Amino acid sequence: MKGTLYGLGVGPGDPELITLKALRILERTRVLAYPAPENGESLVRGIVAGHLDGHHEELCIRVPMVAARFPARDVYDRAAVELGRHLNNGRDVAMLCEGDPFFYGSFMYLFGRMAERHAVEVVPGVSSLMACAATLGAPLAARNDVLSVLPATLPDEALAQRIRDVDAVAIIKVGRHLPRVRTVIEGMGLTAQARYVEHATMASEKILPLAEVDGDTAPYFSMILLHARGNAWDG
Q1: Cα gap 18→125, rounded to integer Å
Q2: pTM for the whole thing?
């Protein structure tokens, strides 16, 4: 009998935000896989480290943090082969995913390579979007509000137009785009309604009004939440 690949959403950083289902699967699987940068420790493994007892065979998937599809495509191709070997030998594999596997998660690239040939189960997790809203005390949307998730990588005009078209936005992948995004929001007269959070639920968590954010870069794990009314419950 072949094994099952589990894409485990383990939440945004707080180890206590892993779901009971994900924890149960983590504890009973024999093989543990997780992404990591080319150099350094895996953040997602660090999230669950306190739940590990040493019984897993571990597979670290080193992924270049670059925008280009190559060499990342090669990395996922090789990882799919390695994971498939374990599955074909009857071993279940738990693949760790920060936040939720299908909310801008890299697990989707493995899912696309493996779902037609292997049993794959996705276990949803607390996403960064939900974590940032909770951390900021800023409900995302109410009643008939339209909420849009916008990558900061969008061109300025596209970003501004999409903000105009909706009631609330979450701007993700801020990073080096912080000055440009801040300028767009300022030009629209919406700075007072914008809130910033980085490393939500982690020990290094930081929350500020966007107007008080210094510097020209932000961490990868940062987000700006903006509601046209200021607060979703207003109006």
Answers
A1: 7
A2: 0.91
C-alpha count within 13 angstroms, C-beta hemisphere, residue 120: 20
Query: Token pair 């270049």 is at which residue?
Result: 64
Q: What is the DSSP letter of 50?
A: G
**Distance between CA atoms of residues 145 and 138, nearest Å:** 14
Reading the chain (235 residues) residue by residue, the pLDDT tens digits are: 899 999 999 999 999 999 999 999 999 999 999 999 888 899 999 999 999 999 999 999 998 765 555 557 889 999 999 999 999 999 999 999 999 999 999 999 999 999 999 999 999 999 999 999 999 999 999 999 999 999 999 999 999 999 999 999 999 999 999 999 999 999 999 999 999 999 999 999 999 999 999 888 999 889 999 999 999 988 6
Q: What is the SS3 assignment for 13?
A: coil
Handedness of CA 113, 93, 172, 77 (dihedral sign): negative
CA distances from 16 to 12, 20, 120, 202 (A): 10, 10, 25, 11
Strands 206-209, 194-198: pairing is antiparallel
What is 165-222 written as a DSSP string?
HSSEEEEE--GGGHHHHHHHHHHTT-GGGEEEEESTTSTT-EEEEGGG--SS---SSE
Residue length, the chain? 235
* CA 12 from centre of chain: 7
Three-state secondary-structure class, residue 123: strand
Residue 216 phi, psi (nearest 5): -110, 0
- Please tell me whether residue 127 adopts helix, strand or coil conformation: coil
Q: How far apart are CA 12 and CA 17, in angstroms?
A: 8
